[in-house]
Design a protein that fits this description.
The protein has helices at residues 17-22, 35-45, 53-69, and strands at 8-10, 13-15, 25-27, 30-32. It is an alpha+beta fold. The strands form two sheets. The chain has a two-stranded antiparallel sheet. A hairpin with a 2-residue loop joins β3 (25-27) and β4. α2 (35-45) runs antiparallel to α3.
């Protein structure tokens, strides 16, 4: 499943669409949120009042990907 947002805003965490587009990684002309911004957002979600297990798994997968890429 894919999710998309105009702005990322959860509690005190906020990125507006301008920030997201400025830092986007473009693949075949389509801008995607940078992996570092996504990781920061997912880490934030792991510390909200009722965190989703999916976000913990996403953080692990992103960190594993970045470590393998390094």
């Amino acid at each position: 499943d894919a999710e998309y947002y105009v702005d990322f805003s959860v509690g005190e965490y906020f990125l507006n669409s301008y920030q997201l587009i400025q830092d986007a990684h473009v693949v075949e002309g389509i801008p995607f949120m940078s992996i570092h911004q996504l990781l920061a957002f997912k880490r934030f979600l792991c510390h909200v009042e009722d965190p989703r297990e999916k976000d913990f798994r996403d953080v692990e997968a992103i960190e594993r990907y970045l470590n393998e890429k390094a």
